[in-house]
Amino acid sequence: MDHFLYRKGILHAEDIPLPDIAAQVGTPFYVYSAATLRRHFRLFEEALSPLDHLICFSVKSNSNLAVLKLLGDLGAGMDVVSGGEYARARAAGIPGERIVFSGVGKTREEMRAALEGGIRQFNVESEAEMHQLSEVASAMGKTADIAFRINPDVDAETHEKISTGKAENKFGVPISRAREAYAAAARLPGLNPLGIDLHIGSQLTSLAPFRKAFTRIASLTETLRADGHAITRLDLGGGLGIPYETGNDGPPLPIEYGQMVKEVLGHLGCEIEIEPGRLIAGNAGLMVAGVIYVKQGEDRKFLILDAAMNDLVRPALYEAHHDIVPVEEPAPGAETTPYDIVGPVCETGDTFAKSRPLAPLQAGDLVAFRSAGAYGAVMASEYNSRPLIPEVLVDGARFAVIRRRPTYEEMLSRDMIPAWL
Prior knowledge:
Blueprint: E1 4-7, E2 10-13, E3 16-17, H1 18-25, E4 29-33, H2 34-48, E5 53-58, H3 65-73, E6 77-80, H4 83-91, E7 99-101, H5 108-117, E8 121-124, H6 127-140, E9 144-151, E10 173-174, H7 178-187, E11 191-197, H8 208-226, E12 233-235, H9 254-265, E13 271-274, H10 278-281, E14 285-296, E15 301-305, H11 314-318, E16 324-326, E17 337-342, E18 351-358, E19 366-369, E20 391-395, E21 398-403, H12 408-412
Parallel strand pairs: 4-20, 5-6, 5-13, 6-7, 7-8, 8-9, 9-10, 9-11, 11-12, 12-13, 15-17
Antiparallel strand pairs: 1-2, 2-3, 4-14, 14-15, 14-19, 16-19, 17-18, 20-21
Helix pairs in contact: 2-9, 5-6, 8-9
């Protein structure tokens, strides 16, 4: 459920008509619903109750400071994968004890910054990283709580580019080497191995891969405890999918996910951490674009928008589907026209959809891309020297720009021409 509904024939974000926002900030833009963000976070809280748990929002899915602060105020922790994301979480007011540092390539500088600023734990991805973190923490006179990210060799049954838990993926320590890794960490200074971490992929639409992976982790927990390790935390990652296409059966609900977690892991008495991003933020956001031209091709019509692949890269990168709807609601039973929906970037890949049936549109009309709140703005670029588009947060009958569109002058000011040219 989200809070983007038609009222009197106009698509609204909560209580705000989208054309009102477009008139003030211009198109294209992202818009997020505070009510939807709050609701989705609370669904996970309810799903994991009464287990001891912490929900760490995946910052890579949406890193806007206003979004992070809104969730942090609800009690969310943050899962970060870079020094920049760590800095964002801290700038949003998230205390270090609620920040988990994941990622396969942490640098010494990132480790030091997190240890200085406060960190809940490092999810260690390799034995090489383990040794480096031990050196950094020891030199600082600190002890880092760690959980090894274990690769359970489970197929997440999702897109190959967002599957992370198979043996051939770059992530984590192979489950076959887990006991050796924990034994080595226990001998090293500056490390406190207290948990197990895993993440098998993104946009999962079935609980079966989760159950298989969690079952393996439950067995590993008991084995490591028998080896003398005090395993008190299990970080289960994220990955639960969202419905991108209207009319299709949706992925499992958070309450179903939570029940499965309790069944498979509840007997271990561990604190549970999860790292949802897409399910909290995905359906909480739209990208709104304007129609520049309707172009008649040889055998098709093109709807040319002012948004492009640099603004929302998922369709070009993953062949991802987003429902695209007119902001002005079509009349009941209105005939549709198939459009290839494209942007102005000079790439054939700048295509959002092919033969997508929509009620007839014309230049100046607005369309909205649903389910764009996760992996939209964070993956945007300035390709073709196109400015990053604004982000807007709506809360009831009020809205605010939470990232403005930069000017060309601001973009150009970052480049430097050497004196010898």
